[in-house]
Structure prediction request, 62 residues.
Amino acid sequence: MDDERALTDEIVEEVYAARKKIAEECDYDFKKLLARYERMQAENPQDLVDEVPKTEPEPQQT
Prediction:
């Protein structure tokens, strides 16, 4: 379980670092961030999720 937690923490830290880098590159300006993300979406439409798959709730254990 510690290995799983360490991997999760490592992934979370990587995501935080990427977000921070992007924010810094946009001077923490919301309009610049929005424009960047919109541009990224337009350039990579295959990476977008059109619809969240519907899943059945897990049965309750009694």
Summary: The radius of gyration is 18 Å.
